[in-house]
DNA sequence: CATGAATGAGCTTTCATTCAT
DNA sequence: CATGAATGAAAGCTCATTCAT
């Protein structure tokens, strides 16, 4: 009788998620209210429940989307020819949002994951996927002699990912800090970690 | 008949804070309720307000105490003779709690700081103090030729601190990961960052 | 599907105000609880806050409405031809409620105004408006030779208004008193105050 | 064993009542808290309950004391030779406090009496006593030809007392008003009400 | 006498969620 | 599809009162 256009439905859903994302970034998962999200998305509270079963579902979707994005970035990374440069670029890009003073929703997700099993599971699945991608990329680099062959690729991938989390924290801990300077240290650190022992050209990042 | 024992009062206060800390770790700052904290501390809701003006004050005290602890660790660090070894030890100690699966309250503080000005201020003050301590320590190491003299000490200190935040995140993202392996990468990374360029003894950390 | 009927909303608002008025008259501004008002209005506690931001707003609306009514009566007064008769009629009408034993909310407003700046302001604005109306009415009477020209019209207006407050108090102090007798004295008093000195027909009010 | 000095006990009781009176004047009967009263009286909450069974008892005592004072003033009145002058003086004195901007606790009592049976009873007993005193005084004046013999003494007494309530209200409704001017109207009004019809010397109050 | 720690019922207010229209 | 009125279960917090010391 009524043709529910699934495309339109999906579009609206995404629109609501975007609004929710803005609210979550501003007020946190618990702090943001359904009313706030509805106002931002310009729909009524009742209508929201046509798209999401409850608030938790919105949080879950945002969490998934946020992590999906990060993972997609990592997938794109595998295409570069210089593995270290690719990693640097990616880390830089993902911590770039910090410069705006908006820490985004990542810290919120991490804190929520510590308490909420569903979020935790999503986070861990996405993290594992990212880690696999990155580790594989590092191993390829090792095979090509461009990355320190002694490095534990899996563990190194995990640590590199956690650097991004750390850089989000850094933007809150020290907003007054010159991001150029801290980025440079970050790059030096990653470069020195990944570079093969004999080659020392990476030292140039400090000069 | 007369004097209130201020010692007893302080003891009770600390007892309540401990209970609150447990609740916050379990449910988050917003998720934990006054009733929950009171039950955990075995006092009545009304009585809690003899010790704290409001919930925010409890959050503030917990935040302050948690950060104080971290800072006190950094102050102790300055006493070691080998600066790199001292840094490694401290980073290790502060991310050690992760192994228990209890991420503690640090991620909660970071997420809360993004939205709450009072918490943010506390966090930033403590962070700055820690950064100063650590930067000074690094500079001394540079003067003694034990740390790369080209390193931007202030920025390096900031990044090192954020590594701890990252390691907390890591413990949630990948609890299944062997902490020994990730710790080793972490140590390698720090060692290579801090070591002076000519000396290559630090490479041994991988072997 | 669409428009909120603003008429219905306003009707409900008035309904709630009426319920609140009954509760305030029974229990006072502080004594009446939100739960009590909701029960009286047959709505849920949460729903009340769709119509009023907080309890104070309800008190303010009741205060405003109560005083508006009194002022509207004074405005109507200016139409009589015999000024003294008009004043008597109005004073009588406004203290008439007392006979039911229900003192209404006026004394509550007066007591609250002594401590609450917002209520005080409303009360004073309304009082000033009433006083201006009444003073102007008296001055017209003086011009027409029907009111004692030596009378300070502004001060007399203020005193006449306070007579109504006093009559509310009287109904509580002495409910057993014959209202006909006290009303007669009140009328005599007002008549003798307002009448021009030479004419003595006003004395008849006692006979 | 322990000699409870009943004099000291009574003194303390009065001290507490004075403190309570200040708090009630500032915050109202419901608004003032036991803690506030204790702070003002410089005693502990527990100790307060050695002197009063509960808060209601304090309110009752304050109510009684406040009304006692007013009644005592009326008793003193009976000694003057010119009855009208005595009444004027008394009304003036009792509304004098208003000039300080402090409306005192009378309006609070009136509002409370509308809802609380115990307070109402106290108020009505005291009011009746005052009314009897004043009515008798007026009757004596009538016998001596100094007060209008046609006046209903009882009702007039009631109305005169309510004038004082009204003047308290006036001080809140119109604090900006010149008290000298309103007092003068008040005096004129009372004088004209009470004066015997033939004598017209009272008119001088306006000149 | 005197203290203040302790209680717990009850207050105002918020908010995810439902449902008649 | 879409609305927003309506619900009601908490939440944080207050405060009169009690009681061990």
General description of the model:
Four copies of one chain form a homotetramer. The first copy, chain A, has two domains: 1-52, Arc Repressor Mutant, subunit A, CATH 1.10.10.60; 59-206, Tetracycline Repressor, domain 2, CATH 1.10.357. Chain A is built from nine helices and no strands. Chain A has helices at residues 6-31, 34-41, 45-48, 55-77, 83-94, 106-113, 117-143, 153-173, 179-194. In chain A, α5 (83-94) runs antiparallel to α9 (179-194). Chains in contact: A-B, C-D. The interface between A and B is large, with 59 and 59 residues. Chain B binds a DNA duplex (21 and 21 nucleotides) through residues 1-4, 8-9, 12, 33-35, 43-50, 54-55.
In short:
Chain A is mainly α and 207 residues long.
Largest chain interface and its two residue counts? A-B, 59 and 59 residues
Helix content of chain A: over 70%
CATH class of the largest domain in chain A: Mainly Alpha
Q: Structural class of chain A, please? A: mainly alpha
Number of helices of chain A: 9
**Low-confidence parts of chain A, pLDDT < 50 over ≥5 residues?**
201-207
Distance between the termini of chain A: 70 Å
* Quaternary class: homotetramer
Strand content of chain A: under 5%
Strand and helix order of chain A: HHHHHHHHH
The CATH architecture category of the largest domain in chain A equals Orthogonal Bundle
């Amino acid at each position: 009788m009524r043709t529910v256009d699934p495309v339109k439905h999906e579009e609206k859903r995404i629109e609501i998620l975007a609004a929710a994302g803005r609210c979550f970034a501003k007020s946190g998962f618990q702090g943001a209210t359904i009313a706030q999200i509805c106002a931002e998305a310009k729909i009524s509270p009742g209508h929201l429940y046509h798209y999401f079963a409850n608030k938790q579902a919105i949080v879950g979707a945002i969490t998934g989307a946020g992590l999906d994005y990060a993972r997609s970035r990592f997938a794109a990374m595998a295409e570069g020819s210089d593995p270290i440069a690719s990693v640097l670029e990616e880390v830089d890009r993902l911590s770039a949002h910090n410069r705006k003073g908006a820490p985004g929703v990542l810290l919120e997700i991490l804190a929520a994951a510590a308490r909420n099993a569903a979020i935790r599971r999503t986070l861990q699945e996405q993290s594992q996927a990212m880690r696999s991608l990155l580790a594989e990329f590092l191993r390829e680099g090792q095979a090509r002699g461009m990355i320190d062959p002694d490095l534990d690729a899996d563990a190194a991938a995990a640590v590199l990912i956690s650097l991004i989390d750390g850089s989000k924290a850094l933007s809150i801990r020290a907003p007054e800090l010159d991001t150029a300077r801290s980025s440079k240290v970050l790059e030096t650190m990653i470069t020195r970690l990944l570079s093969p022992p004999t080659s020392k050209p990476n030292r140039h990042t400090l000069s």
